[in-house]
Write a structure and sequence with these properties.
With 158 residues, the chain is α+β, with helices and mostly antiparallel strands. It has two domains: 1-34; 43-156, Domain of unknown function DUF4426 (Immunoglobulin-like). The chain contains one helix and nine strands; from the N terminus they run H-E-E-E-E-E-E-E-E-E. It has one helix spanning 7-33, and strands at residues 52-57, 61-67, 73-83, 95-102, 107-113, 115-116, 121-129, 133-143, 146-156.
C-alpha cells in the first residue's frame, strides 16, 4: 500500500473536510442565535414593528432603549429597566431622563424626563431628531443611591 493519495482521493478528502467544517459552523451559528429555553427576553420582545431597540446595562439593570420611529422628525422613545439578579428593587422609582446628541452636526436635544408607565417602563412621547446622522441617545437613571448614565448610538438614515 502506498503512502501517497491519488489526485481524486485528495479532492474527496478536501471535500469531506470542507463539508464537515461547514456543518460545524452552521451548528455553532445556530446555537448562538437560537432562542433560549429560559425566561429571559430579548430587546426585540419589547419593540414594536419598525422600531429600533438597543440594549445596555449597569450594575443595577439591563437597560433597553426603544426608538419607535428611527427616522428624522419627532419620535416616541421607551426605556425599560430590567433588574439584574440580586439587585434591590425596593424603594421609590428612579427618575429616567432621555436626550439625544448629533455630535457631527452640533445638534442636541435637551433632557426629557420620561413618564413612568408600568413594570419598570418609562416613556417619552416626542423626541425631535432634526436630521439624519449618527445620533447618541443618552439615558440617565437617577435615584435610590445611584446615578447611571448610558449612551446608545443609533444611525438615523433618513
Amino acid at each position: 500500500m502506498s503512502g501517497h493519495t491519488s489526485p481524486a482521493g485528495r479532492r474527496s478528502l478536501v471535500a469531506a473536510v470542507v463539508l464537515a467544517a461547514a456543518l460545524l459552523t452552521a451548528l455553532a451559528i445556530h446555537s448562538l442565535w437560537a432562542p433560549s429555553s429560559g425566561t429571559a427576553q430579548s430587546a426585540s420582545d419589547y419593540a414594536p414593528e419598525g422600531a429600533a431597540s438597543l440594549t445596555g446595562g449597569t450594575a443595577h439593570d439591563v437597560v433597553i432603549l426603544t426608538v419607535s420611529a428611527p427616522v428624522t422628525g419627532t419620535t416616541a422613545v421607551d426605556v425599560r429597566l430590567v433588574p439584574r439578579h440580586g439587585a434591590a428593587t425596593s424603594g421609590s422609582s428612579p427618575v429616567v431622563a432621555v436626550s439625544a446628541v448629533l455630535p457631527t452636526a452640533g445638534h442636541a436635544v435637551p433632557d426629557f424626563t420620561a413618564v413612568r408607565a408600568s413594570d419598570n417602563r418609562y416613556h417619552v412621547a416626542g423626541l425631535p431628531l432634526m436630521m439624519p446622522g449618527r445620533w447618541e441617545f443618552l439615558v440617565v437613571v437617577d435615584g435610590n443611591g445611584r446615578h447611571d448614565r448610558l449612551v446608545f448610538p443609533l444611525t438615523i438614515s433618513r
